[in-house]
Every structure is written in structure tokens, then in C-alpha cells.
Amino acid sequence: MAKILLPYHAVIDAQDCNGETPLHIAARKGRINVINLLLEFKANIHSLSRTEETPLHIAVAHPEAIEVLLKAGADPNSVDKEGRTPLDSEERSPFHYAIAKDHLATVEEFVNDHEASVDLLATMSEVVKYEAFNVFKYFMSLVHTRANSFHKSRTSKALLLHEAVSGIDANLRRNGSSALHLAAQNGYEGYVQKLINFGAKVDARDDENRTPFHLAAQENQDETVKILLGAGSEINAQDDDSITPIYLASESRAHRVLQVLFEYNPDMTIATLSQGWTPLHASIDRGRWWGTELLLDAGAGPNLVAHDGWTPLHLAAFKKNAGAVKTLLNHGADPTLTTKKGDTVLHLAVGQFGVGVIKELLEHGAEKYINDRGETNDTALHLALKCSDCHVELQLLIEHGADIDLRSSEGLSTLMLATIARDLEKVKLLLNTNITSRADLKWQLDDLIPAYRAAIALYCQDVAVNQKEEASKCFDLVKALLEKEPELRDTELDIKLPIDLCMRLSNSGSEHN
């Protein structure tokens, strides 16, 4: 069709709604014959679309088309509407488009085969003498074009290994990172080794003061870690927060790296500046149970204390990680240590509804500190009574010797705590438990009267605001207390007993005078 129309003076550079000419369209489709024909009829090789793309931009998927256009004088450094100069790290030349689309053959055409690209590299080599940093940024911008999917990009790999970068300072940085940081993070061992051969500093620092070793450890790149350590990377390198590579490996799924690091005897006592956490803290915080066991087997201290006084065991209890708690206890963790606020591991476990953790602690001798008071001056039993559920936790604590006769931080009895919570199950559990700290072992009338009065007062309060469901709970509490101690019927009350409550008690078989 083009052969027919062109001799009849068809407008060769006519633009469609997108501003594209026939040459753009032929370039997009890689139609070499049509491209040659259009160029023969003097088509504008520099014509711009609405987005200021040249035919060369459009042809990136077709190396043969690129070759034809370059030989015809297309500018390999032209930029689109959003582009800038070749030395700008954010520019998008046709070279960048080829990388972004992962057209390896096209990139190789640009880098290796064309006179235009050779001239470009020669120009850059000249500029190296004056602006090495800018040139390096240019090459890094090419690599970073596909940074979000770097591991899938053949072109990025080719660029990183290309000899064109061998004359550029391998220690210059882009966006705070060196090429070695990028290669190490993505686990490209060949590139890591080549960059080191080019003179890259193995302990170069990024904007967070992290080395390539930090990034490789975090991403579980064990082979890269071996190369870096073999090249002299500092095993205990610390970033701005004193975070070490083993810390990052511990909080990540980096078991392979951990096993490599243990061969180099890393310091597992180095704690972060911000929290005072060790690698063991980090592993537990992220729920890396297998990492916890690896660290402990390698000699990590189970009783190292963070700034707030939390040991790894406190953290495991707070995280409800029964497996980690068991492992820590088996490796010598001290369950009697308290946080700076005074909480035991048992306080933390109850506060987080950690039944499994409580069982592990009780099996490992928690009876020794079961009645210790914590930050709020409450025992673990008081915390269980104050939480909205915790029935299993409460029963476990009572069965293992928690003292139900101790008063809470507010001066309330355990029975009163259960009553004001309107929790019948907890009240019954307490009523059916002997007070082991007393010689008589039994609840006395003086213990029951305050709870009885409170239950009636709550009932009246709920009825007054038409809270029928809550009032029903309070009725059940009154009934349970009367069944435990019928003499409560004779208790002098501060308020007049509601008639409806008397009737309900009478109908239920619990008479009240």
C-alpha cells in the first residue's frame, strides 16, 4: 500500500490522533521494508508524537528496525516528553525504553553494535575525566529503570556486567546506594564479584549507613554473603541504629545466611541503639521460631536485656509464641526476670490471652513468681479477672497456686473483681475454690457480703437504664452468692431490695426476706 500511495504524493509525515507518523507505526511493528521505503521518500526520522517520542523510541522491540533508523541518522539520545538529558538519572532515552521493556537484543545492539552507541560511549568516556559521577549515575539509571523487577530483567544484568562500566568509579553512588549494594541485595553473585574486581568497596555505606553485606543478609542471599565475607566485609558492621547483618538476617526469613554467618562467629550481643534489641529479640518479634532455635543453638544469650528491661522471653510471652517460650526456657532463659516496669513474663502472657504460653511457664516453675505484682501492682490473677475473657487463664492460675485472697491494686477482692465484671463463670470458679493462704480454707460471710451488695447495686443500676441483659447477669450473680451462703439473705443493704428481684429470687428457689 505504501508503494502505491507514496508516488502519488501522499503526505509522508501525516500524523494520526496520537501524533504518530507512518514511520512511527512502521517502527512499532518492525516493518523493515516499509521503514526503508519511507526513508527513501524522505520521511522525517526525527518526527515527534504527542508524547514527543521519535520512531526510534517506538522501535525498541525490533533490533533490526533500530539498526536501520540509527544508520539513517536517528538520535540515540533523544528524549520523550518526560525525558531529560542522558546524564540525568531520571531521563528515558530509547536506551532506557529498551531496558524497561527488557529487550536484551536491543540493549546489546545499543551497547555493542552501532556506530551511534559507540560514539555515545566514547563521548561518555571523555566526560568521565570531568564528570565521572554523572556518568556513573547515567549507567545506574539504566539499571534502576527496572529496579522494581530487577531479578527478572535480563537487560539489567547485561548492563551491570558490561565492560562499559569498567572504567567508571565503582564506588560512586546513586540515590544513596552503590552498584554493589544493588547487586548484593538481589543476589547476583557474578555481578558482585565483577564489581569487587572493578574496585568496589565491599563495606561501602548507603544512606542508612548499611553495607552491601547488610542488604544481602536481609534478603537471604547466602552465596553473595560468602563472596562479601571472602572479600573482607566486616561481619559485625553496624548501621546508624547499630543494626548488624545478623540482626537483619534474624528478623528476615534468612536461615541460609544465618548458617553461613555462624561459621564466622558474629557478635550476637550487639544491640540496637533505639530499643536495645539483639538478633534474638528481632527473631522473636518477627515470629521466626526456627531462627530463634538457630540463634540459641549458636550461643545467643537468652537473658540479654533491652532498654525497657524486656528479655527475649518477655517478648515471646507478649507475642503468645509458646514454641519460642519453650525453646528459650530449655536454653536457660530466666522466667523470674522482670521488665523495668516490674512485669513478669506471666503478667505479659495473661495480658495477651496467651494460654499456651501460660501452660509452658507453669510447667517450668512459674509457681515461684505466680503471686508477684507487676507494673499496675496487680498479680497475674488480678489481670485475668480484669480481662473480658481469660476463663481458662484464670483456672490455670488458680490450679497452680495463685492466691485468691490477695487484693488488687484498687484494694478489691478477687471475688469483687469478678462481680463488678458481671462474670458469672469467674464468680463460680472463685466460690468453688479454697483459699489456700488461710487456715480455714473457706470463704467467710465477710468476704461474700461486699460482692453480694455490689451485685444487687449493679442489678438496680441496670434495671434503671433498661439494660435487661446486664440486669439478668447481675441476677445470676446474686443467685450464685445466695446459693453459696444462704445467710446473705439477712445482710443489711444500703438500698431497698427491688420487689422484682425478690420475686425473681423467690421463683428461682432462692428466697429472700
TrEMBL record:
Superkingdom per UniProt: Eukaryota
Signal peptide boundaries: none
SMART domains with a match to the protein in the record: ANK (SM00248)
Alphabetically ordered keywords of this record: ANK repeat, Repeat
Keyword Ligase: no
Ranges of the ANK repeats in the UniProt entry: 18-50, 175-207, 208-240, 275-307, 308-340, 341-373, 376-409
InterPro entries the UniProt entry points to: Ankyrin_rpt, Ankyrin_rpt-contain_sf
UniProt entry tagged with the keyword Transcription regulation: no
The name this protein goes by in its record: Ankyrin-3
